[in-house]
Amino acid sequence: DTAVSQTPKYLVTQMGNDKSIKCEQNLGHDTMYWYKQDSKKFLKIMFSYNNKELIINETVPNRFSPKSPDKAHLNLHINSLELGDSAVYFCASSHLGSSYEQYFGPGTRLTVT
Amino acid sequence: QKEVEQDPGPLSVPEGAIVSLNCTYSNSAFQYFMWYRQYSRKGPELLMYTYSSGNKEDGRFTAQVDKSSKYISLFIRDSQPSDSATYLCAMSPSGSARQLTFGSGTQLTVLP
């Protein structure tokens, strides 16, 4: 049983395109996150939602728009993709009161050419 | 200067060695200290967490926090090839909606 799943696992696209990444968790958590991991393995928070409400919104270009249809799902839409967007994007989830214990998905490796 | 600094390595040790991984930080508000392990092409997974200062042991792993020095460590005893991974330290302040701040990770290889 997959706890946190992401689709797609790999995404190769050209500059200027729009793409979406989907995330689902079946752990019953109320909080979900999007992280970006660059080529040097640095993992940085982008957004966090608690019960469909945005609670963390880091300095991220407004080309990135998260959307949480319900507390088990968190999607990430990226407009006008740029070369610098190439990275691995991780979804994670936790209980709000235990945000130190986050469960990560397998990642989506985005390559922009 | 980053809030959390971690030596990226790579670190290579023989099987059975004791491994010491470290992070330093600058934000005095950090109260929760975590170690995540990330295998190649996988998502990070939580190994251990510690609240405030002190030590915590779990099997072959020991986490130490020294808040006075703003320094945390993870020790791995009797290291195994299966421990080969990138180890990420992470920290957060108290309160709800705590945001984790990660170190850049240390890549560890345990040679058989």
What does this molecule look like?
The complex is a heterodimer of chains A (113) and B (112). Chain A has no helices and eleven strands. By secondary structure, chain A is mainly beta. In chain A, strands 2, 4, 5, 6, 9, 10 and 11 form a seven-stranded mixed β-sheet that branches. In chain A, strands 1-3-8-7 form a four-stranded antiparallel β-sheet, with no helix packed on it. Chain A is globular. The termini of chain A are far apart. The model of chain A has no long low-confidence stretch (mean pLDDT 93). With 112 residues, chain B is an all-beta fold. Chain B has no helices and eleven strands. In chain B, strands 2, 4, 5, 9, 10 and 11 form a six-stranded mixed β-sheet that branches. In chain B, strand 7 and strand 8 form a beta hairpin. Chain B is globular and about 40 Å long. The relative contact order of chain B is 0.35. The A-B interface holds A 4, 31, 40-45, 48, 50, 55-56, 90, 92, 96-97, 99-107 and B 8, 32, 34, 38, 41-46, 49, 86, 88, 90, 92, 96-102, 104-105, 107.
Characteristics of this structure?
heterodimer; A: about 110 residues; mainly beta; seven-stranded mixed sheet; about 0% helix; B: six-stranded mixed sheet; globular
Helix content of chain A: under 10%
Average pLDDT rating of chain B: 93
String of helices and strands of chain A: EEEEEEEEEEE
Percent strand of chain B: over 45%
The rounded distance between the terminal residues' Cα atoms of chain B is 37 Å
- How far apart are the termini of chain A? 34 Å
Largest sheet of chain A: 7 strands, mixed
What's the number of helices of chain B?
0
Please state the CA-atom Rg of chain A, rounded to the nearest Å: 13 Å
Please state the average pLDDT score of chain A.
93
* Helix run count of chain A: 0
The count of DSSP E runs of length 2 or more, i.e. the number of strands of chain B, is: 11
Which bin fits the share of residues in helices of chain B? Answer: under 10%
Q: What's the total count of β strands of chain A?
A: 11
- Residue share in β-strands of chain A: over 45%
Q: What's the multimeric state?
A: heterodimer
Give start-end ranges of low-pLDDT stretches of chain A: none
